[in-house]
TrEMBL record:
Domain of life according to the entry: Eukaryota
UniProt xrefs under Pfam families: UQCC2_CBP6 (PF20180)
Protein's name according to its UniProt entry: Uncharacterized protein
Length: 103
């Protein structure tokens, strides 16, 4: 049986998990809440979920500017992030920009 302390910690992590606007029927927070009630919950699983929530890997292994701005397309990742944010808000690019490949 999982300890109540581990279960509470994972419930707390699950409640802080951001909602995915593109998959409203499939949320990682919901999965973590159900995992918190699993009888074989381990401290390692709770640490892994906390690490993902706090983005520890990105801080430990930061991406260089050369990786984020490749010489062939320096604005690629900036445009990708902008497109993601706009699509989450429901803002689409006009058809003519898509057709002509204009950003």
């Amino acid at each position: 049986m999982a300890s109540p302390k581990l279960s509470q910690q994972l419930h707390r992590i699950a409640s802080q998990w951001p909602v995915d606007p593109f998959r409203p029927h499939l949320q990682l927070g919901t999965f973590l809440k159900s995992l918190a009630d699993h009888p074989q919950l381990t401290p390692h699983a709770v640490r892994a979920a906390r690490s993902l929530l706090e983005n520890e890997s990105a801080r430990k292994y930061p991406l260089s500017d050369k990786t984020m701005k490749p010489a062939s397309m320096p604005q690629y990742y900036a445009r990708l992030g902008e497109g993601y944010e706009k699509s989450a808000q429901g803002i689409a690019r006009p058809w003519w920009k898509v057709f002509f490949g204009i950003w």
